[in-house]
Amino acid sequence: MRKLETFDQMEDKKISTTSATFGLLRKELIENLGVQRAKSFLLKYGWNLGKAHAIDVLKVGGTTEEMLEKAGALHYETGQISGLISNREVIVDENGEVTRISAKGEWLDSFEVAEHVKNHGISNCPVCHTLTGFGSGFTSTITGRRVFLREIECRGKGDASCTFEMRPEEDWDDADMQKEIQLYQESRFIDELNFTYEQLLEQKDFIEKASTFHNTLTTRLSDGDSIEEMISTIYDTLNIPVSIEDLNFHPRVYRGIDEIQYKTFSEDFYNSINKTKSGKILYSSYDKTFVIQGKAHKRFVSPIIVQKKPIGYITFFYLDKEADAENETMFIQRAATSAALYFLNEKTSLEAVENIKAYFFEQLLQKQYTSIPSIVYRGYYMGIDLKEPFFIASLKCTSEHLDVSKVELLDQIIQSITRYLEMQSYKILITEYEGSIVMLLPKVDRLNYMLENILKHLSHEHRHIAFQVGMSSQHGSIETIDEGLEESRVALRLNTAEKIASFEEVSIIGSLINSKNMLTIRRIARKELEPIFELKDHKRDELLKTLYVFLMNGGNLQQSISDLSLSMSGLMYRITRIEKLLNKELRNPAAAYELLLMLDALKILGDIDV
């Protein structure tokens, strides 16, 4: 029996394989090692293959140019290409040493392109790694110098052809090619295995950490922890400073940084986020997880989505601006989901409570209670101390596209306000009352600032609606709630320009009107103007408007004509008729002043629209 030879006793054997088999090997390498490490393997494989063929060519001998010419034939014989077009320059000194070499060429029908596209589709970079390595190894062995090919264009990434350049190592000076040359460096297979094993360990540790994080948050949710406790758990588990903020990026709770740091980071953040020319935040830019790089810190932010609507944000802070925040994508999104579940549960409970609070508020507005002490006591259960100062606010909604009187729409707006204020831990009473939204706002510092943010929030969530708030004066007893309601409505009627209309800033006549004298003022004014009010609606409104404009213009005929779009005869006819009906001389200052005062009062009370 013939004894089996050892590999050391055998010559280097040549084996053949099909392109499909090689394509399968190539596919497994890419899928298991990744594109970059598979490229390194294929470059080294091609290099050794080219080197082996070059050794055989050197045994036959010939000039350097003749031996280099055989590279194309070897490519063709091994089935790697169907043809080669090459333009090569080789300069050899008197001793046969290659002093200069360069080439440009094209591979025809590269087998690697066909296999890569079949298994992976179009690539974003050249794919003929074996051909590149073969040419580099073959040329380097023949010339005795380190010469490298680089594929410039490739059909595997959608180019028209597979073209390459060839230069000595020292002539390649761009960074990308230097990185590619590093891929030719020898590495033991055991090193590859160790690297893969370390990656697997890292992945295992990451999965275990993510699983522990997930289980911890789930347990906290089921235990009924508060949002503050949940944020503390996130910080303790990940050791990353974290916060929950509302849609205007104002904080509800944060951990891992102190108040001074938070304020510094907030200023840095506002200077870094996308804003309009007028300085408003472009909220549409932040409806998905995003990274903001500031000058003092980096933050990783994910929206908290409840019932398909963002209600706030969870933020991870990085003091190291070079930190790779995207590594925590799984953690921040899980944290955002947990926060969303918390707020969804809170919202469900809140809606039930809000319905009770709305009914309670309606009872207050209608004075349907037996005693002050009992209603104050019930207020404690609602989180409202009715013995403390408060304001009554009326929310005015206008839109060219929507019917803002619909109860369903008003309910949506009320929910938007309650969700927002819940993030601020600010308790109010709110209800739909007599076709509009009414709020009882306990006195707090910077109440106007709070209202401004509420209006910003509403404008963000309801883009086709314009909002304005009418604010009453400060009240200290629930017995005057109805007065506060009327004051808030008067503020809206008198001030149509400001987003927040305060009763304390209305005109003198407005400030003289309150619930105690309202009926008296209305009765006196209507009695004086009774002859006009008895006319049909069209004639009544026509004469009231004419009277108001004429008096406001101080009896100036030309200005009144212009404002009313009337002729002189038309205006004089109306003035004469008004004077007969009221039995008053409109050019008499005392009579004119008295009539204007009455019209202003009725306008403020909402009885007329002039």
Question: Keyphrases for this structure?
Answer:
single chain; 610 residues; alpha+beta; 5-stranded mixed beta sheet; 21 helices; elongated
Write the SSE topology.
Blueprint: H1 19-33, H2 35-60, H3 64-77, E1 83-92, E2 98-108, H4 111-120, H5 129-143, E3 147-153, E4 162-168, H6 175-182, H7 189-222, H8 227-238, E5 242-245, E6 251-255, H9 259-270, E7 290-293, E8 298-306, E9 309-318, H10 329-366, H11 372-381, E10 390-398, H12 407-423, E11 429-433, E12 436-442, H13 447-461, E13 466-471, H14 481-494, E14 500-502, H15 508-512, H16 518-528, H17 530-533, H18 537-552, H19 557-564, H20 568-582, H21 589-604
Parallel strand pairs: 13-14
Antiparallel strand pairs: 1-2, 2-4, 3-4, 5-6, 5-9, 7-8, 8-9, 10-12, 10-13, 11-12
